[in-house]
Amino acid sequence: GDEAPTSSDLRKALTNPGVWGVGIISLLSYMMYMIYNSWMPTYLTSTFDIELALGGLLTALFPAVGLLARPSGGLLSEQVFDGRSFPVIAISFAGSGLIAVGMFLSRTLLILAGGLVVAGFAIQLQFGLLYTLVQRYVPRNVGGTAVSVVSTVGWLGTFAGPPILGAAIETTGSYASVFAGALLLAIGGMVTILALTEPPAR
Known about the structure:
Layout: H1 7-14, H2 17-48, H3 52-59, H4 61-64, H5 66-79, H6 86-105, H7 109-124, H8 127-133, H9 143-172, H10 176-195
Helix pairs in contact: 2-3, 2-7, 2-9, 2-10, 5-7, 6-7, 6-10, 9-10
């Protein structure tokens, strides 16, 4: 089996730029996920004059589609991209960003509901891949440490996203901030991918 990690191994894992790069991807993707989850019910009820319960029900489609999206990301990586994760993550961010623009321009509840489903699928494509990807940047005996970094940083994204966006909405007085925020996070994710080099698949 793998040797127990030394303090030097752990330090290298915790200071590895690739580990923190994947951590940033995790932060951005979970922030985008929470933007949709936390603010979309309010946006729908204020824009379409529907009950908050219906807005919440429509928004529930966003995480629910993850049941299909998360395993699909792995299948796409293995069956189409020879085990590479970056192409799937790029599709995830690009798709989510473009859908955010389309949803902002839409004034039809049905189209927005459909956009939520597609956006939910797109952003969650990458979630499962992040935890296998980050382990390829470090020796196997510190893979768990690398995963913990990505998990923790992603959790910070779920915590930080909604209040930051809430402040932006309050400042601008417009829900356009919801979609602008999603687009900026998608662009940030694409830039992060370009700055990293993906290790070979194991």
